[in-house]
Amino acid sequence: MHKTTYARYxxxxxxIPFDIxxxxxxxxxxxxxxxxxxxxxxEIK
Length: 45
What we know:
Blueprint: H1 3-10, H2 18-28, H3 32-36
C-alpha cells in the first residue's frame, strides 16, 4: 500500500474499503470495531 493512501485513510480523506479494513485489523491484531472507531478496546474477544 502506498504511504499517501494509508495517510488518507488515517486522516479520513478516503474511506477504507472493507477488504482493506479486514487486512489492517488482522495485521494490527485489532477488531473491525476498533478500526471503525466504534470502540476504544483494541483486543479481540
